[in-house]
Amino acid sequence: MYTEKVMELFMNPKNAGRMEDPDGVGEVGNPRCGDIMKIYIKVKDDRIVDISFETFGCASAIASSSMVTEMVKGLTLDEALAISNKDVVNALGGLPPQKIHCSLLAEEGIQAAIEDYRAKRKAGVEAKP
Amino acid sequence: MTERYVYMDHSATTAVDRSVLEAMLPYFSEEFGNPNSLHMWGRKARKAVNEAREKVAALVGADAAEIIFTGGGSEADNLAIKGAAFTRRDKGRHVITTAIEHHAVIDAFHWLEDQGFEVTILPVDEKAMVRISDLESAIRPDTILVSMMFANNEVGTVQPVAEAAKICNERGILFHVDGVQAAGHMPFNVRDMGIDMLTMSAHKMYGPKGVGGLYIRNGVKIEPIVHGGGQERGLRSGTENTAGIVGFGAAADLALRRLGDGSIEEEVRLRDLLIDSVTSSIEDAYLTGHRTERLPFHASFCIGSLEGESMLLRLDAAGIGASSGSACTSGSLEPSYVLLAMGITHELAHGSLRFSLGKDTAREDIVYVAEKLKKIVADLRALSPLWENRG
User: Fold this and answer.
1) Residue B302: per-residue pLDDT
2) Chain A residues with beta carbon closer than 8 angstroms to that of B314
3) What is the torsional sign of CA B7, B9, B10, B14?
4) What is the reported pLDDT for B3?
5) How many Å lie between the alpha carbon of A98 and the closest alpha carbon of chain B?
6) How do B197-201 and B174-178 pair as beta strands?
7) B346 near A32, Cβ under 8 Å?
8) Among positive and negative, which fits the CA dihedral A4, B366, B11, B381?
9) Distance of alpha carbon B231 from its chain centroid, rounded?
10) Minimal C-alpha gap between A7 and chain B (Å)
């Protein structure tokens, strides 16, 4: 059912766990539907220098989280925003059709974290006298 | 490589017992006759089918003539429900079942609804038990059929079948019981209990897949759903699956022995050990279903802040076969309708797990499963944002 890559990342996810003092946090999904993805980012010079995730969900949700965090680490924010769920699916070697929504969560999680970072930064700039 | 392999999904299916396999083998190539043929080959096959029928009947206290062999439990459920409803449709159009039935029953009832029958679905309490008072108040003058499972496959709860039977018997309503999970695992007698029709399945009791049985009390008339050569008293046409039926007979024999030799009591002790280990060593882990009124081999849980499929796959990697009613394992976005009918929240229902023990499950297996599950839950909770933010 799952590719080797999905199982490998599910069993040994990369960038897993909560981050202290993140610059941006994105949380997407719904516990009612059985998956929530939370992405933490650290940003320096408009670039994602560190990233981690916490995910409640099935194996494909966990593997998608791990994969997307690896893919965007080191990218500029705009480059990261260009990563689509299709890119995540391809990097995983495919997902079963009913699990494609997990890759969408990964795409949306990154977007939410970047939006959060940009909103905080904007608020921070405006707050300065 | 894992330390052990522990199959704990006997509610899904069981391995064919060696004695059952050996009983079946001659009926493929040597004794291959059609039981409906008059010659020696046919007579040998007929004799084997008849003997198997007696063994299956003996398991539940029926007469051999009251057992119909089918192609499995689902077929037997469909035959009982559709066959009874169509026979009695001039007496009334109202039929009753429960919210936690197997799909073979629920979907047959939905089909009846499409055919113009009126269906009442009884709710269950938080332990998945049907309330007899709900059954009593659902019955109408035009009620012709009630179908209630003996014990639930997902949460193990054993229903008040005898009480429900009494109510139906008194009112002349046909009473069908889906006994797929219970038959061969709990001692009971269809006659004492007042059951009119009982579904059984061979592969849930160490017999082969593809063979089921329907007990139909002598005197109860139902319509067939498979028409043809008139086998099985005209209720299930088609050349008998001789080897499979022989296997069912041998499995019934084995089950009857196990019901009397203390095996079930030991199974209950192991089941309780697993329930106690999991609920005491894992925080936010709950037993689902009734604590005592449950299948002897069945332990089911909901684990907070986790999703079932991820636990199943980690258990699988540790050599443990279990199952779950989470959305991700059902292929839909909804978790198990059984858990939702019990009032369990969507969030918690996603974290459901079922372990069903078998005759070869050892104490060491239980200890291994409890230890591995504890570690897997801790590892996955370290990833779960829900666990961190729990109230």
Assistant:
1) 97
2) 11
3) negative
4) 82
5) 7
6) parallel
7) yes
8) negative
9) 26
10) 9
Do residue B333 and residue A33 have CB atoms under 8 angstroms apart? yes
Span between the terminal Cα atoms of chain A, in Å: 57
Contact B156, B289 (CB under 8 A): yes
Look at domain B6-14+262-388 and name its CATH class: alpha beta
Write the ipTM: 0.93
Q: Exactly one of A19, A36, A95, A102 is catalytic; which is it?
A: A102
Q: Do A31 and B384 touch (CB under 8 A)?
A: no
Q: Would you give the distance in Å from CA B188 to the centre of its chain?
A: 15
Q: From the CA of A1, how many Å to the nearest CA of chain B?
A: 11
Residue B331 pLDDT grade (very low, low, confident, very high; cuts 50, 70, 90)? low
Q: How far is residue B271 CA from its own chain's centroid?
A: 17
- Residue B310 pairs in a beta bridge with none
- Residue A58 annotated among the catalytic residues of the structure: no
pLDDT confidence band for A103 (50 / 70 / 90) = very high
Interface test with B, best of A56, A64, A95 (most B CBs within 10 A): A56
B residues 42..81 contacting A (CB < 8 A): none
Contacts of A11 in chain B (CB under 8 A): 314, 317
**Residue B313 near residue A59, CB atoms below 8 Å:** yes
Nearest to B335 among A34, A36, A56 (CB): A34
Given the residues B15, B64, B328, B340, select the one marked as catalytic.
Answer: B328
Kindly report, residue by residue over B246-294, the tens digit of the pLDDT: 999 999 999 999 999 999 999 999 999 999 999 999 999 999 999 999 9
Active site residue B328: yes
| B18-259: CATH number | 3.40.640.10
Q: Are strands A35-44 and A24-30 parallel, antiparallel or unpaired?
A: antiparallel
The answer, yes or no, to whether residue B180 has pLDDT greater than 90, is yes
The domain locations on chain B are: 6-14+262-388, 18-259
